[in-house]
Design goal:
There is one protein chain. The chain has one domain: Up-down Bundle (Growth Hormone, Chain: A). It is 78% helix and 0% strand. It has 18 helices and no strands.
């Protein structure tokens, strides 16, 4: 039987990777700048940090739940329609945040923002990129999405900061909403149903893919470890600007620190994409989580000055989204690429549960204690846990795939 290629397959691999990278960069950039709105919004609305943090936690939880569905739709019908719908949801969420008058309004905004990023972030596009390149280049191609996310943050932080300074935080949200709409025409090269490929491996249904994954112990270890990544990243990106302000530093320090995360993330994610040549992915993940602990120790015991915060943020950036190509790469190693976006979406759901926990707990503990010290200690403990739990992962295909290549 002959299968017609999808429109996406009529574009060269570099075009697919580039377009997906631009979309991911925009989506993740818009997501990462939300921490810049914590202080002005809570001050203007007369609420504590917990309600804002809860809204961002809801966004991350919805993102995680939606990532599984968005990944399944992208794997079955193509990523184009998922991107378009999610871009509209992002714009609507930013508008609702602009118009918010209460914590409940913020929560509704969080729901829309979560829906928005679940279809435009890395999780929905790893399958399209993974299928566009040959297996030997897959991890490096997926790493490019993580690098794009870092570039997006690097551009988005000064972009949003200048908008806030010039236009005020409310009008700046309208500009960001208009920016989100630009992702819709970018979905064009990624539209269309993924091509069916002839193979010696029997095609799987969605339920069969889930059943196989749920019976694989290494999949659950990977899923548990990614919870910690979400806990670290969400807490740090949203609460760092407030931590900087609490330390008596200028707001620009927080912006520069998060930009340093974005720049260093480009380097770290590229290195992670190349690391498969000389170490197993599970070893790389253990190293990443272990190294994060030193940053949190530094924020507890070093004097909190502008240079210290920026340097520590740059170090953390090296180990930021470098988890993504290794984690998604292991999903592809285990199960192949047919349902890659969906299965990585499930792993990412754990990441977002971690994000929800990190954001909720940070807001709660800060309002109770007036300090982030407890969160730094908890982050250290989780980092050590994640470093340990990745070590016993068995980095090889499931029996179904292994038997097909014999």
């Amino acid at each position: 039987m002959t299968f017609l290629p999808s429109p996406a397959n009529r574009f060269p691999p570099w075009a697919i990777v580039l377009t997906a990278g631009v979309i991911v960069g925009m989506a993740m950039g818009l997501r990462q700048v939300m921490g810049l709105y914590l202080t002005p919004m809570t001050t203007e609305l007369g609420i504590g940090r917990e309600p804002f943090s809860n809204a961002m936690a809801i966004a991350n939880l919805v993102w995680g739940i939606g990532a599984v569905l968005a990944g399944a739709i992208a794997d079955r019908y193509g990523a184009g329609r998922v991107i378009a719908g999610s871009a509209l949801a992002t714009a609507a969420g930013l508008y609702l945040m602009y118009a918010a008058q209460s914590p409940l309004d913020l929560n509704f905004s969080g729901v829309l923002l979560g829906i928005g990023v679940c279809g435009t972030g890395v999780t929905a596009l790893v399958g399209a990129v993974g299928r566009a390149v040959e297996p030997g280049k897959r991890v490096a191609a997926i790493a490019s999405l993580g690098m794009a996310a870092g570039i997006g943050g690097f551009v988005a932080f000064p972009y949003a900061h200048v908008l806030i300074e010039w236009l005020g935080w409310q009008i700046s949200l309208l500009v960001l909403a208009a920016t989100a709409i630009v992702m819709i025409p970018l979905a064009w090269p990624l539209r269309g149903t993924p091509a069916t490929q002839q193979s010696a491996i029997r095609p799987q249904s969605l339920s069969e893919a889930f059943n196989e994954a749920f019976q694989h112990p290494s999949f659950w270890l990977l899923t548990a470890g990614f919870f910690v990544c979400g806990f670290h990243v969400a807490f740090y990106s949203v609460h760092l600007p407030a931590f900087v302000a609490d330390s008596g530093l200028d707001a620009s320090v927080g912006v520069l620190a998060l930009m340093a995360v974005g720049i260093a993330n480009i380097i770290g994610t590229w290195l992670a994409g190349q690391s498969g040549r000389f170490m197993e992915k599970r070893v790389g993940l253990s190293l990443i989580y272990f190294m994060r602990c030193f940053v949190f120790v530094g924020l507890l015991f070093l004097p909190i000055t502008g240079p210290v915060v920026i340097v520590l943020s740059a170090v953390l950036g090296l180990f930021w989204l470098s988890t993504v190509p290794l984690t998604s790469g292991l999903v592809a190693v285990f199960f192949g690429t047919t349902w890659m976006s969906m299965l990585f979406g499930f792993v990412f759901l754990s990441h977002q549960l971690g994000s929800f926990a990190g954001l909720w707990l940070a807001g709660r503990l800060y309002d109770l204690t007036g300090s982030y010290d407890a969160m730094w200690w908890i982050s250290i403990g989780f980092g050590l846990f994640a470093a340990a739990i990745h070590w016993p992962i068995r980095e090889r295909p499931v029996a179904r795939l292994a038997a097909a290549v014999r």
